Amino acid sequence: MSVKKLIAGNWKMNGSLAANEALLRALASGMPVQSVCAVAVCVPAPYLAQFQAMAVTLPALDGIDLGAQDVSAKASGAYTGEVSASMLKDFGCRYAIVGHSERRQYHFETDTLVAEKTQQALAAGITPIVCVGETLAEREAGQTESVVKRQLAAVIHANGHCISEIVVAYEPVWAIGTGKTATPEEAQAVHAVLRAQLKAATDHADRVKILYGGSMNAANAASLLAQADIDGGLIGGASLKAADFLTIIAAAVV
Ligand code: PEP
Question: Residues lining ligand 1, judged by CB closer than 6 Å?
């Protein structure tokens, strides 16, 4: 298990200049004085600059890293609407989510595309948070393990020895935004499968953080984060409420 846990907020397509400022100020003032875990917020692309500017005047934001919610599979060029990894780097991004189930579902992202996005992020010095997870139908058909292994295998295959530089997020699709959470035991079982897959690919698998995501909240975070192979959380809804997000951060003591 990696040493420090990572708590990453995924704001999704929420926020405004005013709402973000209030949320970031509340987070900054509530952050633990001694860092107990790594913390990041993955904001909508137009607000990356706002975070960067606020971090200059609000030193307490130092303990929070910036992340994007997606990255282009291309380095530059005629790809209207896309945002490249080097652009994210310009705005101080440390992380980029890739392969979130909402992008796989609504934007038809394939395992191959997700692997290419991972490559672009790594090449720019950005840590990709690679999301994998099964749908309810796949779980009920007993396919959870094969689905997450297929999704991760594409990323391992494309990234070779760099694979130890990624973060993986196990996000069962049926648990995202639904209020239904995998039990700690269910989540741990899948995390152990992913850890074993990483171990077969790299000698540094223990360095790879495997986050759980899917209705993690202030009430259930501690029991999920206590599992041996759960190295943090990717948090959607609860990351929009400063008090809840701060409670999850406090639960991530190693
Ligand atoms: C997510 O979108 O990555 C997520 C886990 O959302 P929620 O916490 O709202 O289920």
Answer: 10, 12, 171, 176-177, 213-216, 234-238
Reported as a single tens digit per residue, the pLDDT across 8-56 is 999 999 999 999 999 999 999 999 877 789 999 999 999 999 999 999 9
Query: CA-CA distance, 189 to 224, in Å (whole number)?
Result: 12
Mean pLDDT of all residues in 109-125:
98
Residue 164 lies in a domain: yes
Are 11 and 27 in contact, with CB atoms under 8 Å apart?
no
pTM greater than the 0.90 cutoff: yes
Could you report the per-residue pLDDT of 177-220, keeping only the tens digit for each? Answer: 898 889 999 999 999 999 999 999 999 999 999 999 999 999 99
Ligand 1 atom with the shortest distance to the CA of 100 = 3
CATH of the domain at 246: 3.20.20.70
The percent of residues above 90 in pLDDT, for the chain, comes to: 91
Phi, psi angle pair for 8, to nearest 5°: -120, 130
- CA-CA distance, 88 to 120, in Å (whole number)? 11
Ligand 1 site-directed mutation target among 13, 69, 167, 171, most atoms within 8 Å of CB: 171
| Domain total of the chain | 1
Quick one: pLDDT at residue 254?
Answer: 65
The answer to whether position 1 is within a domain reads no
The span from the CA of 196 to the CA of 24, in Å, is 37
Q: What range does the domain containing 204 cover?
A: 6-69+80-251
Contact 176, 128 (CB under 8 A): no
Angle formed at CA 182 by CA 180 and CA 186, multiple of 5 degrees: 160
